[in-house]
Amino acid sequence: MWGAVVVLFTLVPMTALSTADMTVFSTLLLMAHAIPVEQRIVARAGPSFWTTSILRIAGAMAFAALLHQLFAATGWLSQPIAPVWKPMAGEGGWIGFAYGTAKTLVVMLGVLLALSWAMELLRAAGILDVLYKALAPLFRLVGLREEALPFTTVGLLLGISYGSGLMLAEVRRQPIEPRQVFLASVFMGFAHSLIEDTLVVVALGADLTTVLFGRLAFAIAATAAVAFVLDRFSDTSIAPSDSASRS
């Protein structure tokens, strides 16, 4: 996401962007960023890299197109953006690049360690069980059962990159049906890192309601549609064998 944000503010003047423009760009970015890295992590849990990547990109394009048409037809969010934070250029040269990369890696290590320890503390205190029960009705809307709650919750709140180790640990901790892992991965592709990524794009001028609640609603509807197609496909695929066995 960070590279795309810097490129946007470098190539497009702030005065040329409306809140609607930033919101559409942000929803596209929130759903379809870091595909090579994040979908490789998802593939480690079982689902196909290409299938989940295509679904994620197609969903991002569809949601962004819907928002664009809505904003263009209604004039909603047509006011100029008012970002509270604007990315600044870093130090030039290889030394500056090496320093920035090393600093980023150290920060990521600290964040990952903190997240891992926090999850273990929350699990030991029983807080995670309360959180899973609170999110269970939401997950049932997209066809996810209780066994997939820990895996999905980590990605939903922490993100696929930062939460990768914890997500894979949850898959190994208890067996999860492959179909459940696939649906959870599709859902997380549309709605992951709801805390950090949402705060970033809102700080850049995107509309909070759209990028948070709108994205979550689209993720539920799109994943439920994928679950429906899977059910129909499964029924169709087993029908011939069933009829053959009956004959």
Could you tell me the mean pLDDT?
Answer: 83
Q: Quaternary state, please?
A: single chain
How does the major sheet shape up? none
N-to-C CA distance:
56 Å
Number of strands: 0
Q: Tell me the series of helices and strands, N- to C-terminal.
A: HHHHHHHHHHH
Q: Nearest-angstrom radius of gyration?
A: 20 Å
Strand fraction equals under 5%
Structural class: mainly alpha
Shape assignment: globular
Annotation field: number of helices: 11
**Which blocks of ≥5 consecutive residues have pLDDT under 50?**
236-247
Q: Helical content, roughly?
A: over 70%
Give me the secondary-structure topology:
Elements: H1 2-11, H2 19-31, H3 35-45, H4 49-74, H5 93-125, H6 127-140, H7 149-158, H8 164-173, H9 178-190, H10 196-203, H11 208-246
Helix pairs in contact: 2-4, 3-4, 3-8, 4-9, 7-8, 7-9, 9-11
